[in-house]
Design goal:
Number of helices: 6
Number of domains: 1
Number of strands: 14
Largest sheet: 9 strands, mixed
Keywords: Hydrolase, Lyase
CATH superfamily: Fumarylacetoacetase-like, C-terminal domain
CATH topology: Fumarylacetoacetate hydrolase, domain 2
CATH architecture: Alpha-Beta Complex
GO molecular function: 2-oxopent-4-enoate hydratase activity; hydrolase activity
Protein name: Fumarylacetoacetate hydrolase family protein
Structural class: alpha+beta
CATH class: Alpha Beta
Oligomer: single chain
């Protein structure tokens, strides 16, 4: 079994069993982020029977607050799977996660494909490929014995904390507010736990989407019509416990809610 598949199987087993992942053995741990993404692609194939079809991507580390928190100075991508996507108002079991957390995000749904042959992509180009925006909660899972020591390549290999999302009502692109001025508030059990604006996401969420499209194009892959992309958190991750209720308020886009039981 080759190193890439061995690492992917180790991560997939930990995820299915909800076992905190320790550092991968040195002989299979990714040496750099490029190798991390190769493991991630192999992992996605292993997760499909368990997690459902891959329906989009999440982009992590797109804001200064998250780059400081994770000590990673650039964006990272991960997969979003069908069984992890929920409608606002969902009630989810905290026990389905190792250590569940939430982030406040602007999500997009694509109206058209963004093919690798069309690269390089700009923010303006990808903006015109968007069908709708959503107020979104990214669900993240600290699946690690100690994430601070895992290193970016292994975090990338394991979808960069991705564990799904909760989507509010869609807002058509032509009716959306200026994303730079959208203020997001994370409210946990009625108490504000963080706030940020669309401008905090790489200067504009469309910049994050362009980064993802270019990142995938460099691997010969594209984005596709109907896919959902979570563009990155406006606030620092909030870690939760069973019994917590979450509302993300994105002014001009709407609210989105989830409760963990």
């Amino acid at each position: 079994m080759d190193k890439i598949l061995a690492a992917a199987k180790a991560i997939a087993t930990a995820r299915r069993n909800r076992t905190p992942l320790a550092a991968l053995p040195p002989d299979i741990a990714p040496q750099d982020e490029a190798e991390g993404y190769r493991i991630q692609r192999a992992l996605h194939d292993l997760l499909l029977p368990h997690a459902g079809a891959m329906v989009g991507y999440k982009i992590g580390c797109t804001s200064a607050v998250m780059q400081r928190y994770l000590d990673i100075p650039h964006p990272c991508g991960g997969g979003v799977f069908a069984k992890g996507v929920h409608d606002s108002g969902a009630r989810l079991a905290a026990s389905d996660y190792v250590r569940v957390g939430v982030e406040c995000e602007i999500a997009v749904k694509l109206a058209r494909d963004l093919l690798p042959t069309e690269a390089p992509f700009t923010a303006e180009w990808v903006g015109e490929a968007i069908e709708a925006y959503y107020p979104a909660i990214e669900i993240v899972d600290d699946r690690y014995v100690k994430w601070e020591t895992m290193g970016a390549p292994t975090l990338v290999a394991d979808d960069f904390f991705a564990a799904g999302c909760v989507l509010g009502e869609a807002v058509e692109r032509t009716k959306a507010p200026d994303l730079l001025k959208v203020t997001g508030r994370a409210v946990i059990n009625g108490v504000e736990a963080g706030r940020g604006t669309g401008a905090d996401v790489l200067g504009h969420p469309h910049n994050a989407l362009a980064w993802l499209a270019n990142h995938l194009a460099a691997e010969g892959r594209g984005l596709h019509a109907g896919q959902i992309v979570l563009t990155g958190s406006l606030v620092k991750t909030v870690w939760l416990k069973a019994g917590d209720s979450v509302t993300m308020e994105l002014a001009g886009l709407g609210n989105v809610e989830v409760a963990f039981t």
